Amino acid sequence: MKRNFAGCAICDSTWGNVWEEVEGERMFFCCRLCATQFRTLIERIERETGWTTVEAVEISGDRRGRECVARSGSGSIRVVFSFTPEGELLRFVSHAVA
């Protein structure tokens, strides 16, 4: 999966040492909470779109709210999302990308 971050897959932090498999790829996360959030985000995008896999994500923002553009094949979706302190999705609003 292509990502725009070199650090943690969801927040780009470089501290920590959590490695988890997502979409068949071993990814770095700074903490278990970020790993849970990223996995939840990907699963929700797949449910919303019907995609079997997410090929690329570009994430911006911070813990108060983030935006993501996800791509799979020729499809793409823009998502505005945020999580509770426990890592559950609090807000998920999707929009088609023109």
Describe the structure.
Strand 5 (65-72) and strand 6 form a beta hairpin. The chain has one helix and seven strands, in the order βββαββββ. A five-stranded mixed sheet has the order 1-4-5-6-7, covered by helices on one side. By secondary structure, the chain is of the alpha+beta class.
Question: Helix content range of the residues, please?
Answer: 10-25%
Low-pLDDT runs of 5+ residues are none
Structural class: alpha+beta
Q: What is the number of strand segments?
A: 7
Give the strand order of the largest sheet, numbering strands 1, 2, ... along the chain: 1-4-5-6-7
> Radius of gyration in whole Å, from Cα?
12 Å
Percentage of residues in DSSP E strands: 35-45%
Given the C-alpha coordinates, what overall shape results?
Answer: globular
- Number of helices, counting only DSSP H or I runs of 4 residues or more: 1
Spell the H/E element sequence: EEEHEEEE
Mean pLDDT: 93
CA(first)-CA(last) distance: 22 Å
